[in-house]
Amino acid sequence: MRFVFYTLLLFYCNAAAAQQKIFIDNANPQLTTLGKIVDAHDGRIIQFGKKFYWYGTAYGNTNGFTTANEYVCYSSINLKDWKYEGPLLAKKPTGVYYRPHVVYNKKTNKYILWYNWYPKLWNGQFGVAESNNPHGPFKIINDNVQVKHSSLGVGDLGVFTDDDGKAYLSYNTITGHKVSVELLDETYTASTRQGSEFIAEHCEAGSMFKHNGLYYLLTDYTCCFCTQGSGAKVFTATHPLGKYEYRQNINRHPGQLAAVLQDGFVNDNFFETFTAKEQNAITVNYKTISKINLLTIHQFTGNRNGQCGQVQIPAVHDPILEYEFTLEYFNEGEWKNINAVKKTTQNQSQQIIYNYSFPAVAASQFRITPVYSDTLFTLLIAEISFNTKEKPVVYKTNSAAGKPIIPAQQTYVMQVQTNAGKKLIWMGDLWGSASDNIKGHDYQFWSTPLQFYKNGLMQPLQWVNNYSLKLK
């Protein structure tokens, strides 16, 4: 009986050790085992064996554009307690260094470091180094690796290894910041020059991964240490070299905040203008899912053109026109049409009231789009409301990109093995977040595991101060 007790005790102890619960904290900087702030940016965290290795650029107390930049490595068994392993490159030419990425080559049994450096800003080059150990030191074997678009200068990069052992380099050029993907050779130390077409322009900080048979490339507009952060455009393909299709942006709000459409005032000139040129729409976001079957839209008609004294203008008022709208709700990553009936239209002195009814829809996001009948289309909307008590967040969408949800510049999409399977975590640098104003102390943001719909689309990122994971 005693033997059985100790056997069970050992079993539960081993199970607990195999599934350690960890806490991810985005509200504070990551710390080393000695209590110092981790200074590792624009790199990656990748697991080799039982340890996680954090490769990044140490900026210290600089502005980031100096030759003082240094590649460093930290290690951890729990993504929380980080041991400083030291610099990656012991001997390197003088220059400005960014974006270190390390992968392991099973065929050569070598750890390969790809990096972007500038002998002189902005003469972008790629370098490759190798080591027998994940923490280095790494020996440079080529500090000017030629790729398909080297003639345009090269900037940010990422390295992705596929299930079949092949490796791919995603990068942007300096001229035009054009993004593409290339196949590396078997040693992972050179490009085969076999590459995709240009996937995006004016973008940087790309990161590749694979999920459910689809290849994902996440990138967005140039940020360059910006405090507002960058978005995360999602491109997918069925082959790592493409063709890639733009699907969504998981790190930008759907437009500009339009609180005036929910301010409760409907008989005044607080309104939003919608034009055919910008093809505006209204996106309505609720925190919870509700069943909704009624929508009211208040169109403001009191705005009048013309200036005092312009007696030659025969028209005192613009024509008061009635418009149509399309209604949609968001479900499983896609916008779906709502078959709505315009029940009544009420004309008042300064407004037209549209009442739409439709079969109840359970959703948390809705979109209202005016039907733009001609190029001179101009519509003024003062208020909208659905039949629910919860007050939504309302956006006016237009051609301009909305502000980032997470004010961070993307670095990498980290893969973590948990008790619930493989999870993917979006990583970003929160530039300008350090309380002591030291660049090397700027915080990191690590998202909750990315959530995917059946069609391959993803749920948008959300800010969380902290959360827990059970590592396998």
What does it look like?
The chain is mostly beta strands. It has 2 domains: 17-252 and 405-471, Tachylectin-2, Chain A (5 Propeller), CATH 2.115.10.20; 256-302 and 320-397, Jelly Rolls, CATH 2.60.120.260. Helices cover 4% and strands 48% of the residues. It contains 1 helix and 30 strands. It has one helix spanning 2-18; strands at residues 20-25, 41-48, 51-58, 70-76, 83-87, 96-105, 110-118, 125-131, 139-142, 154-161, 167-173, 179-184, 191-195, 203-211, 214-221, 233-237, 245-249, 256-257, 272-275, 281-300, 325-331, 334-338, 341-347, 351-370, 378-386, 393-397, 409-418, 421-430, 443-446, 466-471. The strands form 7 sheets. Strands 18, 19, 20, 21, 22, 23, 24, 25 and 26 form a 9-stranded antiparallel sheet that branches. A hairpin with a 2-residue loop joins strand 21 (325-331) and strand 22 (334-338). The protein is elongated. 37% of the residues are buried.
What are its keywords?
472 residues, mainly beta, Tachylectin-2, Chain A, Jelly Rolls, 2 domains, 4-stranded antiparallel beta sheet, 1 helix
